[in-house]
Write a structure and sequence with these properties.
This protein is α/β, with parallel strands linked by helices. It is about 30% helix and about 25% strand. The strands form 8 sheets. It has an 8-stranded mixed beta sheet, sandwiched between helices. Strands 5-4-17-16-18-19-20 form a 7-stranded mixed beta sheet, with helices on both faces. A 5-stranded antiparallel beta sheet has the order 22-21-23-25-26. The longest helix is centred in the N-terminal third of the chain and has 17 residues. The structure holds adenosine-5'-monophosphate-propyl ester. The site of adenosine-5'-monophosphate-propyl ester has 22 residues, from helix 11, strand 20, strand 25 and strand 26.
Length: about 650
Amino acid sequence: MSTSEIVPVPPTFAAAARIDRATRDALHDEATRDPDAFWRRLADRLDWDRAPTQLKDSSFDRDDFRIRWYADGVLNACVNCLDRHLATRGDKVALIFEADDPATPAQHVTYGELHARVCRLGNALRNLGVRRGDRVTVYLPMIVDAVVAMLACARIGAVHSVVFGGFAPQSIADRIADCASKLVITADEGLRGGKRIPLKANVDAALKMPGTHSVETVLVVRHTGAGIDMQMPRDRWFHAVTDIQPDTCEPEHMGAEDPLFILYTSGSTGKPKGVLHTTGGYLAWASWTHEAVFDLRDDDVYWCTADVGWITGHSYIVYGPLANGATQVVFEGVPNFPDASRFWNVIDRHRVTLFYTAPTAIRALMREGDTPVKRTSRASLRLLGTVGEPINPEAWRWYHDVVGGARCPVVDTWWQTETGGILIAPLPGATALKPGSATLPLPGVQPALVDAEGALLDGEAQGNLVLLDSWPGQMRTLYNDHARFIETYFSAYPGMYFTGDGCRRDADGYYWITGRVDDVINVSGHRIGTAEVESALVAHPHVAEAAVVGYPHDIKGQGIHAYVTLVTDREPDDALRAELVQAVRRAIGPIATPDRIQWAPALPKTRSGKIMRRILRKIAEGAAHQLGDTSTLADPGVVDSLVDGARRDE
Ligand code: PRX
């Protein structure tokens, strides 16, 4: 089924690339025949206080389970991202801050200045009692201080937990409570597309919720200057505590396996999971993959449009690019503000060479036609990337042909919060592309496809995507819940890491990710757990039961379809529909807003009472004619009424 066209590597790109075909083959060969040499090559990219003598030490077998990389090495991630560049790149621009409002002049922050700002905050955090191993929650807009906050934590050995600025107070509170953070760093407000986000007020609301008493201090960045409520002595202005600090700060010497950060992500059941990444392996993998997949050169201007609240921001805004001494744009805004040319204007203004964004943004901009793109030059671009969800070939084509002027390779990068860095992606100077495919595994990465029983599938096949062995960027555990870690990722197929994704491999060995096969919905590249949305709905007094599924959505990739059964004496109406939408936004945040709420007289259940989501998914997709076997339903009549209801709602 390698039906799709092949887009060859542009010869001029290949000629100048860091990794050409021969180098790629040599790396794969080394990773297979002499893995230690390959893993050492990655470790050697970093500056170690004590170089590791141990390399890979892992087993996915339940009885002998361990994931350790470079375990006896000692280093500091912040030193690797800043200090080691000072001698040669102290005056090089690290960050170009592009504000939400295009009229605001851009700020250029050099490696030297970034180092000083990080040191001042590191000292301030220590003065406020934050010690090695303590957790710090970061709830900030996409501003330079978000990067400063993460690196300052890394410098003093504190573990950051960044919470995306679009999350609501309850979600912040859950994340604070789970890891018992001592300190929160936030801002007065965020700005996105001209809209103000009340970040400090959200933190105030979160800290009134149960389980958040661990927080002693809230540091507040003055960003928009809005009037906010400061509760002394808990709340302190960021500038007041940092301005008085010296520009140098002694870094902690961290073990390679010491935690670097926790990042919460949605799973198919229960509350969000605290994915824990450690220091040495994570940083080596983020740095190497960033250089290899983006073909990074010293004079590139790189721009990743993700938010630091997601793993893409961690690995490919903060740790990878800064470890590599790159110059990059940090963008506060959104793709369509003030208009649909914004991305392309920013590319021209800062002469961006490497651009990395999500398919959902590409699809939304594609809908605006070619004119907003063609008004701009984009001549500086030499490579484009995508991440977060499958990219449909039409959107890939538009990105390649219109945005990239058919000159720039498109790297479709498959990975996850859990993988820490990219695992399947083209090496752009070596890999021929197929629109819609993440192409081939990187050296050292061992993906495989299995059937429902866990049998390995050979050659051309479709199945569930697993990884047969560890890589340095792999998550180590779920914070405070190692049993759930094993259960979630290593029990479906014993001895293998299960990704939760379905995938097809074509005759050329190219991987085509088909999407999640579990109860996770990928909305605009953001993972939403159906269970979280359901629990927000059933918390409403008039809701008896709710079931949430994803359905194909032109722009978002997937939309959220909620089936809601009301308590017996309540009739549905539009006011209640609006209330339920609000209830979800309040509990989780705007990113989880249901696209559709369908009133369901009842939900399809098996005789043992289990909701048959397969059927609900088909109805939401408008594929009621493919419902398959419904004979195990307790009441097959339920299905007809739902199919009718879905038709009426269209
Ligand atoms: O389903 C896959 C999809 O996003 C999931 C991971 O989501 P998250 O942990 O939030 O990380 C997103 C950024 C790395 C995966 O299980 N996904 C991610 N990248 C791709 C993708 N699906 C298809 N193609 C991709 N390039």
